[in-house]
## 1
Amino acid sequence: MSIELACEAVGDGPPVVILHGLFGAGRNWARIARALGDSHRVYLPDARNHGASPRGQTMSYTEMAQDVLALIERERLQRPLLIGHSMGGKTAMTLALEHPQAISGLAVVDIAPERYSDQFSPYMMAMRGFDAAAATGRNEARQALAQDQAGDTPVLDFLMQNLRRHDERFDWRLNLLAVAMCMQELCGFPRRFRHRQYEGPALFLAGTESSYVQAESHDRIARLFPRAHLEHIDDAGHWVHADQPGALLRALRRWLHRHEAGTPRTAAPQAALAVR
């Protein structure tokens, strides 16, 4: 059963839906959404168990894709363009492969349709082990997580965005238990898609300082998305929208312009992804 996602929207024009990554929320993409809002109506949903969206015991990619499909139907969006980062990118790819008629194009930011090693369970354990309700301030939480995680500053900064004050107490915006229980599934990608293809336009954007999209990822992308086109964003790590928002915005605008202008793009040969 799908979950009714919390969602904000900005701008006016053809619909675009942006799906955030693990530990994130739609508001992480507010800057990009406002910029695209001068020509598009941009929707920023929170994934289940994230942000202001309802909680659920499970969060497979099929379930999260169904949540987004329900949002598209609820808002009566006519084949929106779909942008997804990290976990949101895998959700977007799942939706494209299962319900290709629901969208008109796909942009995936710094993720590939493959399994990744679990880098996040230690952070989940640290967050679950910290008594947020008893905290007296944000610095206390940050120091506790930094001690457990050897002070990985970029990750800590990102995780701390999930700590909120509720009345006189702090709590986490995440459903920590459900995310922790589903972590292995979130690290993977459904194997049943091995023989499926999304034949619509697909853009893959990868940060040059990120290790998430490797050369060996190109064949996997091309097999599932034969019209895929890969571009690299210089001096960007995994959080491309935070590291290089201007460059990412320019790449997305070029893609949106090509799509709306109806410029024909030849399909990349299978297992030979077109790279720029």
Note: Strands lie at 7-10, 15-19, 41-45, 81-85, 105-109, 163-166, 169-172, 202-207, 228-233, 274-275.
## 2
Amino acid sequence: MNNHSGRGRVAGLPAWDRCAVMGVVNVTPDSFSDGGRWFDTTAAVKRALDLVSEGADLVDVGGESTRPGATRVDEDEELRRVVPVVRGLASEGVVVSVDTMRASVAEQSLAAGAALVNDVSGGLADPAMIPAVAAAGAPFVVMHWRGFLQGDNVQGVYEDVVAEVVDELHARVEAVLAGGIAPDRIVVDPGLGFSKDAEHDLTLLAHLDRLRALGHPLLVAASRKRFLGRVLAGPDGAPPPARERDAATAAVSALAAHSGAWAVRVHEVRATADAVRVARAVEEARTTGSAPGTAGERGARDAEHTPGTASEREARGGGRVSGADGAHGAEGPR
């Protein structure tokens, strides 16, 4: 893995010194969380720009819901939904990921300015996907996937979910590499919520180190998912609505960042942007062995607590002493 701050970096994308934040824009009428809210090119572009202003490093644009039982949209409709949004965002300088299982949508989105292809099937849904991405030289997200979420496949069966997801992702990565996608352009995703129940998702989150051992940057997409509803359920067992799971999402984002995730994918950005920055500050403190702050700030704190009379402190600091105990200099309180 090409390391950058211990979490890897992806060729063809900016290098962030912390866990990146991927904002979600669903240009769909039926996504589980926010379907219909941004089902218009103008609204979708505005939403994405708002997410960037709140701290998103890149934006994932999708035109097809992958919720359990969702009916697949046809190719022409997916293209109509996605490509104009990608083009509009790219023209604004936004780093765009396209969330699609179709090679044609990936190709046209990349031509319109997308920088990353995020395929929840890892290239399994469309045999043309891997050759198309390889030909474009684009980065590619390989998610753990056991098929469309229909019937019995909604909840997968595992004897050891971590070992099986790691093994199946490894096999898929090998197939993607054989298809011509460069190793430094591959991202892996454990596929939380895809053919997994709440216990599976939580177990995978508890063992992100095993997924990072695959040697590729790790994307964690937990935002508002069912397992969070299960964790947050009230005494009657009823989970809160998806839009009331954003604080829990931010908590997972902080944990994922602390565990070395390359990026987290979220619907609401602001709290997660704060969470990953706090995680980064803690990493820095662990590395340096001291609290964050510039040398000047540390010097000011040291001077403030240096023994001596007020006049001696004034002489050392070269400034006027003010206040009852002479604690503040000429600049006033900090």
Note: The CA atoms of residues 121 and 145 lie 5 Å apart.
## 3
Amino acid sequence: MGAQLRVYKRRIQAVTATKKITKAMEMIAASRIVKAQRKVAASMPYATELTRAVTAVATGSNTNHPLTTEAESPARAAVLLLTSDRGLAGGYSSNAIKAAERLRERLAAEGKEVDTYIVGRKGVAYYGFRERKVSGSWTGFTDSPEYSDAKKIAEPLIESIQKDTAEGGVDELHIVFTEFVSMMTQNAVDGRMLPLSLDKAEETSTEKGEILPLFEFEPSAEDVLDALLPRYVESRIYNALLQAAASEHAARRRAMKSATDNAGDLIKSLSRLANAARQAEITQEISEIVGGAGALADASAGSDK
């Protein structure tokens, strides 16, 4: 019984130490969510106005820019997948990977080849383990991205969509990330960044009661699009990185809270088992003492006779 009690005590100590770690990680993640939310809110106005500006240039001119014009027979697409660098965040990265797999299957069903670009060590490890080709990858900043990170990611993507498909270019650019809805809800979503869907942008402006302004372009609308569209791609990627970071922190906070609660329940269960073992040990010792006293009493009575 004594050995069993020691086992329970060691397990209680180990689980208690783990509980302290998960509680600390929960508190750290909770403190980072607020900062990440502020960054998301701060990036929205710039991204919205930049999208309106690009839409205005595209709809207010007769130019057929390759970044706003649909290919007649799109044959190749690039997919940017945003995952995390670290684990302990529940199903955060796996949900994004599953969304990317569904998008890949949908694009393949449409007869398009897919070039995959990945952000985050979890996504890189997933594709590396399965020996799948990755056109580009970036790691080390998923929990606190900067605009420079988005710019670094956007460069090869913009370059690939400006090339002809015969030269290794792509016709479409898609992004898969985890959208931050609330502290309890984060959804893995996919969307097409390029070519820009002008019909959808016009419908959004109409719903808001906005009228896209008319402009005269110098030196030309095409030159303006050449300057604006890289900024548009960078802003979309940056906003997605910020939402993904907020979602990662929220998912980690929720996962660590669940781990902390489970550790507390396990400690209670082990404490009950330890108490039962200690009671059994005490009962056994009392029985041995009583039995020994009885044997001594019998031996003394026999000697008196």
Note: The two ends are 39 Å apart (CA to CA).
## 4
Amino acid sequence: MSRDARWNALLELLVERGRLEVEEAATRLDVSAATIRRDFDQLAEQQMLVRTRGGAVVHGVSYELPLRYKTARHASEKQRIAKAVADLIAPGEAVGLTGGTTTTEVARALAVRPDLASGSPALTVVTNALNIANELAVRPQFKIVVTGGVARPQSYELVGPLADGVLGQITMDVAVLGVVAFDATHGAAAHDEAEAAINRLLCERAERVVVAADSSKLGQRAFARICAAGSVRTLVTDAAADPETIGRFEETGIEVIAV
């Protein structure tokens, strides 16, 4: 197991449990206790956790795993979802992309589509995610529009009222929404209210909304609502999604694509 994969696993265990002992972590990951101690020390230096005698606890009261440590979660599902979402977007369209691991994969899938290799522009991409803008800015055939705002370190997203000035002046063909929860009754949601507010505005400025979410996000609720389920035209998820849950989305008029 590589160091990055080990760190991902350690941090996810910490998120689940709040506290983790060295010996327990070593057993779970099948590595030596010395390796886990070194990992804990290095993660503590980055303020990703707090070292304790014999183990570690999560850093702070409100803990959310930063984007760079979420990429290993449901990776193959997210890549399949991303390709299916990218296939829904036509050349020349204006596309809004929120932040998140799945939408980052959507950006990568768009970047390698052969029919988007040229054009003036081949796509216009509007995003509040710094990492997505960074990845796509090297594609000269893409017109990249970045909202203003204050960077949120957990998700690389720009949030706050500074983004309103840009988003209030544009319209988009489609908004691709990454979520932490999507429920047929309660709608799409995020953990952070500022993040949800920007995502909501992106949705309002788009002709159609696509939610890109792996099956672990479906039927779930989160603190900050982004939009109602009725505002979403298409849900793209993975084939492990519960049929009853898919049926509830379809009853609201949402087209569901399971890949």
Note: The first strand starts at residue 19 and ends at 21.
